[in-house]
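User: Please predict the structure of the protein below. I'd like the answer in structure-token form so I can feed it into my own downstream comparison script.

Assistant: Understood. Taking the following sequence of 146 residues as input:
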Amino acid sequence: MARRLLPLLTTTAGLFLDVTLQMQLGNPSGATADTNNHQHYLIQRPVEAIDYNDYLGLPNWTSWDLTSSDMGSAPRSPDFFTDTNLPPTFYWVLPTDYSGSGYDRGHMCPSADRTDNTTDNDMVFFMSNIISKIIVAHWPTPAMNC
């Protein structure tokens, strides 16, 4: 199920969320919102900023501001979403693209950092915020290597 992205500025419980807060440390790669920029496409949302690489189908980096007001008791989204807000010339990664691959989905901006409300939590479940991670039943501990 695909969802449309919320407006870039929103009001939640009397708070004004500004997308510029997500890049307070700058834009290290010079990412732009130019739809012809497939290697460094800038996505700015109230919950995060992403330098997205269409060729890889992954974020190059993600930046977010974290305050106590970003965390609450909203439940974790049960679903991942195709980011249909990406330009139509980009490949829209599907949640099913990981099925049977041996990889799991990992968040760049963590779900736990956006539990103030379900809308904000859902935004970090867009596939544009997801990277591949290997499924490992048991990670070895350093003591096991001695």
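That's the full token string. Residues 1-16 have pLDDT under 50 and may be disordered.
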